[in-house]
Design goal:
14% of the residues lie in helices and 34% in strands. By secondary structure, it is an alpha/beta fold. The strands form three sheets. It has a 15-stranded parallel β-sheet that branches. It has a four-stranded antiparallel β-sheet with strand order 19-18-21-22. A three-stranded antiparallel β-sheet has the order 16-17-20, with no helix packed on it. Helix 4 crosses helix 5.
């Protein structure tokens, strides 16, 4: 029988032993090490020899021109914050990382041209700032990485990548895809939510856009040099609001058909249709409040011959210096032809207050002579016919001038000077 003192000593010893034993197990099996930076193959191979208790790492960066494999990291179990693989020209496989099961704040794989796939990262979830694949030569990803929520989703300079399967994407804020020449679709984004910026550039094989099911608003939709894209098809299953729309250098884009969107401009918003050689219809866009729009650019679309849409007429009349229209065709040839055509619309009085209230001359109708109001003396005067063709132009250095040479009909006079211009519709008897 133990006496009371012996019993107390036994309990204390047993308790301390248990604590020490648990501490030993923790250090042996799962201690977390701080940020790790591996620069050479020797660093990789000797990592667990030098750090036998580092089964868990806060952040891991691997970057080195002589690193050919990651077998020395096969015992790694978790990374708590960031995984960066940068400038690894000889690395071919990520399979030695297959035991890692982690939710990362950031995952970046940059300039690793020999990596054949992302197999080995199958148990990775990204929830935080960044998911980036940049300057890779792989054709397929082959890893169902879960993009739970990231601010930046970037795929850039991956010329052989065909699609983004089997990524599992929930929430992203900014999606940038650039110089992925073999990429045919980004359909893995169909169920993504909260996308604010959707930008795809220089993806010449892209032939379709995702049918977004969970998107209500986009601050920017930009498509540039997507040569195989013809239509928007069913871009969204319901109408969404877009603040800025930029379509540039899309060789086969025919129209906005399928773009189920309404423009909702905010500060610095813009509309750009530029260098789309087959684009022939932009009427899919509907009327909106354009007071916050920063600019409209419709340029070098040789098959686009109709621009006198209500939203264009509204904006060009209110903000002519912020409207650039040139090198298109037909009634959309230039800003002048568009504005003249806008004046012929039946609902002209509803949206062109600054133009309709202009008083440049009298009388109206006129027969042989018109008289300028004094404020327009010494200004440039131009007269256009109902088709927008310039038929008369001069600087008004006298208060009246002859129009007897004009055939009877409807005309529009433009007076410009001092960084402003006004139009007045008149009838020539």
């Amino acid at each position: 029988m133990l006496n009371k003192m012996q019993f107390i000593i036994y309990i204390i010893f047993s308790r301390n032993y248990l604590i020490l034993y648990c501490l030993f197990l923790y250090l042996s099996v799962g201690a977390q090490c701080p940020d790790v930076f591996l620069k050479t193959q020797n660093d990789v191979d000797s990592f667990f020899i030098k750090n036998p208790t580092c089964a868990s790492i806060k952040s891991l960066t691997i970057s080195g021109s002589n690193i050919t494999n990651l077998k020395g990291l096969s015992n790694l179990r978790s990374i708590d914050h960031t995984l960066r693989l940068v400038d690894l020209p000889l690395l071919t496989s990520l399979l030695p990382l297959a035991n890692i099961k982690s939710t990362l704040y950031s995952l970046s794989i940059v300039n690793c041209p020999a990596i054949e796939s992302l197999e080995g990262l199958d148990k990775i979830t990204v929830n935080g700032n960044n998911f980036s694949l940049i300057s890779l030569e792989l054709k397929q990803l082959k890893a169902p990485i879960h993009i739970e929520k990231v601010t930046w989703f970037t795929i850039e300079n991956c010329p052989a990548l065909v699609d983004l399967e089997p990524l599992n994407v929930d929430t992203i804020r900014t999606q940038l895809v650039n110089y992925c020449e073999a990429l045919t679709n980004v359909n893995v984004l169909e169920n993504a939510s909260q996308i604010s910026v959707f930008e795809i550039k220089n993806c010449i094989s892209l032939n379709s856009l995702p049918n977004f099911k969970n998107i209500n608003n986009l601050s920017t939709l930009a498509l540039e040099s997507c040569d195989n894209l013809q239509y928007f098809q069913d871009f969204t299953s319901r109408e969404i609001m877009i603040q800025s729309l930029v379509l540039k250098n899309n060789a086969n884009l025919l129209s906005l058909n399928g773009l189920n969107a309404r423009i909702n401009p905010m500060w610095k918003s813009k509309i750009v249709f530029s260098n789309n050689p087959k684009l022939n219809d932009i009427s899919q866009l509907e009327k909106w409040d354009n007071s916050n729009l920063d600019s409209i650019i419709i340029s070098n679309n040789p098959n686009l011959n109709t621009c006198h849409l209500e939203w264009v007429c509204n904006y060009s009349s209110l903000f002519p210096l912020k409207t650039i229209i040139n090198r298109n065709s037909g009634d959309c040839l230039n800003l002048e032809s568009v504005r003249i055509k806008c004046l012929t619309l039946a609902n002209y009085d509803e949206y062109s207050d600054d133009i309709k209230n202009a008083s440049i001359f009298y009388p109206n109708p006129a027969q042989d002579l018109i008289n300028l109001y004094p404020s327009w003396k010494d200004k440039k005067i131009q007269i256009f016919d109902a088709n927008g063709t310039l038929v008369y132009s001069k600087v008004a250095n006298c208060p009246n001038f002859e129009i007897s040479h004009l055939a009877p009909g409807i005309y529009y006079m433009k007076a410009s000077g001092n960084k402003k211009c006004n139009y007045q519709k008149f009838i020539k008897l």
